[in-house]
Design the sequence.
């Protein structure tokens, strides 16, 4: 191995002790880079009681799976988590640090980039690496413009858009697991977790689901949203999503928001029900493979991106869909 | 309490984006500019805290050409006390912006940096976190509620995360980044604009601050994202189900 060979560190994201599906997109990106550059990749997971994720992350040919396990990392905050990632990146000699885009990685990775004095890109769609010349693509202006950019410097950091990368290929040999030595005396303690209102819904996450059923302004209250959007999602085994208008109105929680400032999804099927299709919302779903739109207004902009449009009232159309799919 | 609020000059959010014919950049002819909406929310929050406390100072800072004076004057018209413009014309990445802001922070010594979580042009969502990392201070990102008593040594923040609403306490000084639901920024009044003309606006350069503003990110080319074309209209739920089943999208 030469001194300047590429060495990727993938930061995994855990949710209730399990690896989030989107993390595998970052692993797939790392596999691509390692293959193109003749380099290697490792994976780092941070959390508490992480022993079971070592096996899950060890299936993809990583040189090593690092586990940073501490009660301090149960709800990882940016001060401690960034210090651990920076420490592992430096010790392992990582030249690239990546993670799947999410509020977790967006909170922590820029801090890591600053600590490594590395340039960073958010929501990368593709990577071309030839020697030291790296060009990457990412979206600007609410997804309307695709930029091709060079990322210079000895260390590079980026987050990848999960929907832009296919699943990683499995490896026949399990990766060795190493635990990260954590020196709790030297840990920063500026951010203290108090609580999170996370309510496991039993439904898949919108960034990982094959079908997303999403509701907009036509839904008048939370009960109707749950009965219609939730009800249809459940007969399809789908995730639920929401427009910003419903979050602002207090009808849906922020965690459901799809769009420029919420989650970006690209499922096989996206059902946009009772929503107009503001550009900020389109930024979060227009790469879906198939889009269905239902809206009473035949001129609604959502119909301009829909593969199948049905002019109608969600209060009539959705119950009929649920009944016929049961 | 002293607040530092960075303001980025961006295209008005309703602008229809057009590219230059050679793909070298975005067409700026006839485009209207605004304060990045997330930054305006951050400024509103700082102004409310100052006014609630009955004392304190809000300093706005921008990095860019002299054109950015327009957004700084708008920030002063909203109620900020004074403004700093760091003159820099070349392409700049988030890390270089964070380095400039870190130097401004050291000069100004604020109790809190309040800024937008992302700019609506490049959607990077990096600078606040990088700034906190460079300074080794706490951060709270994507916040929708801030509790900040006048004599506090920590702030209680409600963060909008993928999992749900997370509450954290962050030790001051800190960097806090605003999400959309934090507040609704005030409108600028004629009186505010008159007052803003008399408020101080200082100009300096990255070199004055001792910062190397070289960008590690270089834009090579811009292209319009592929447009989806409209598909077909179906006339009934049955027809819709038949189409989706034909593609085996649903059972």
Sequence:
């Amino acid at each position: 191995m030469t001194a300047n060979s590429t060495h990727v560190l993938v930061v995994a994201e855990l949710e209730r002790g399990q690896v989030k599906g989107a993390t595998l997109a970052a692993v797939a990106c790392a596999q691509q880079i390692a293959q193109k550059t003749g380099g290697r990749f490792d994976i780092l997971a941070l959390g508490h009681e992480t022993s079971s994720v070592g096996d899950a992350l060890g299936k993809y040919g990583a040189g090593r799976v690092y586990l940073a396990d501490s009660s301090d990392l149960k709800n990882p905050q940016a001060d401690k988590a960034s210090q651990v990632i920076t420490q592992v990146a430096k010790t392992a000699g990582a030249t690239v640090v990546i993670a799947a885009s999410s509020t977790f990685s967006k909170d922590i990775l820029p801090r890591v980039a600053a600590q490594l004095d590395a340039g960073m890109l958010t929501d990368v769609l593709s990577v071309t690496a030839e020697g030291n010349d790296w060009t990457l693509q990412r979206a600007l202006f609410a997804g309307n413009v695709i930029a091709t950019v060079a990322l210079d410097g000895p260390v590079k950091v980026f987050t990848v858009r999960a929907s832009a990368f296919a699943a990683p290929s499995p490896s026949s040999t399990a990766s060795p697991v190493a635990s990260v030595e954590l020196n709790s005396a030297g840990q920063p303690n500026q951010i203290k977790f108090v609580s999170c209102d996370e309510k496991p819904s039993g439904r898949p996450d919108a960034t990982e689901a094959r079908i997303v059923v999403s509701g907009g302004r036509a839904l008048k209250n939370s009960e109707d949203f749950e009965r219609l959007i939730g009800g249809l999602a459940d007969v399809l085994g789908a995730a639920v999503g929401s427009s910003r208008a419903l979050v602002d109105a207090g009808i849906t929680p922020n965690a459901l928001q799809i769009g420029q400032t919420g989650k970006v999804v690209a499922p096989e099927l996206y059902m946009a029900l009772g929503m107009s299709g503001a550009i900020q919302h389109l930024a979060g779903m227009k790469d879906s493979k198939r889009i269905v739109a239902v809206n009473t207004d035949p001129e609604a902009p959502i119909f301009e991106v829909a593969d199948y449009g049905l002019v109608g009232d969600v209060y009539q159309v959705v119950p009929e869909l649920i009944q016929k799919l049961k | 309490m002293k607040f530092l609020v960075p303001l980025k000059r961006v295209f008005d959010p309703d602008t229809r984006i057009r590219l230059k014919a050679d793909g070298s950049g975005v067409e700026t002819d006839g485009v209207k500019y605004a304060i990045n909406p997330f930054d305006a929310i951050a400024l509103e929050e700082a102004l409310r805290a100052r006014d609630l406390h009955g004392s304190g100072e809000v300093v706005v800072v921008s990095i860019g050409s002299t054109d950015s004076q327009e957004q700084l004057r708008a920030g002063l018209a909203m109620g900020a006390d004074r403004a700093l413009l760091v003159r820099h014309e070349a392409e700049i990445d988030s890390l270089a912006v964070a380095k400039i802001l870190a130097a401004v922070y050291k000069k100004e010594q604020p109790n809190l940096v309040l800024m937008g979580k992302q700019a609506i042009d490049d959607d990077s969502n990096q600078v606040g976190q990088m700034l906190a990392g460079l300074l080794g201070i706490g951060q709270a990102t994507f916040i929708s509620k801030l509790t900040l008593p006048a004599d506090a040594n920590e702030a209680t923040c409600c963060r909008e995360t993928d999992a749900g609403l997370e509450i954290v306490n962050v030790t001051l000084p800190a960097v806090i980044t605003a999400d959309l639901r934090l507040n609704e920024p005030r409108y600028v009044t004629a009186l505010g604009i008159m007052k803003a003309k008399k408020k101080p606006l200082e100009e300096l350069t990255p070199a004055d601050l001792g910062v190397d503003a070289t960008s590690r990110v270089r834009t090579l080319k811009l292209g319009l994202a592929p447009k989806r074309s409209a598909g077909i209209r179906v006339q009934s739920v049955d027809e819709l189900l038949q189409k989706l089943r034909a593609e085996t999208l649903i059972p």
Notes: Chain A has a mean pLDDT of 94.
